[in-house]
Amino acid sequence: MRNPVSGSPASGSGRTGRPRSAAADTAILAATRDALVELGWSKLTMGDVSARAGVAKTTLYRRWAGKSELVVDAVAELFDALELPDRGSLQGDIEYVVLRFAELLRRPEARTALMAVVAESTRDEALRDRIRSAIVDRQKRLVVLGRERAQARGELPYEADPQLAGRTTDLIFDVIAGTVVHRALVSGEPVDEMWVATFTALLMHGLLGTAQAGTAPASAAPAGTPQAGTA
Length: 231
Hints:
about 65% helix
């Protein structure tokens, strides 16, 4: 699902002229991901992308200032496809989005592109800011949506203070995204249903609640059923 606020990948550039082609943007971003998998970050050039996408190099530079911005937007397009259908419970929503996120990270183009831009951003503050705005901030929409649903169901309390709510959203996102990325891309361990159920129990109930609940995954009980020792 494309974020309606962000618009096209290079929106906000302030440039005017002929309207952009959505089909060209899609072809360029797909070509970028393919080239990155095949060539790697160091060998990837704007010329490689333009040739693969069948567009002039000047077309790329009208949209993106350079390789870093282009690769970030190619990654962002993949993550924008993540959705959060209503699974009927906070537990179900978390388990669903974690599994979908892990599936996305198993795709070579997503894994390679994300690792490349994160590594490069350690030396480039502007690139780090672009990753934050194009990927991180946009994907926090899933946390906001999940919390709103859980609050409407009575599973989570409402927070009257917008600043506190924002900090809570940031923390939840950091915990989920950071844990899944570390397990999938750093440790290289599987993110399967059993692991996701255990992680979700830890996220929902904390260390003490998970220990009291024993080793049975939270998903073993019907959605919305309190686990032993977690009430």
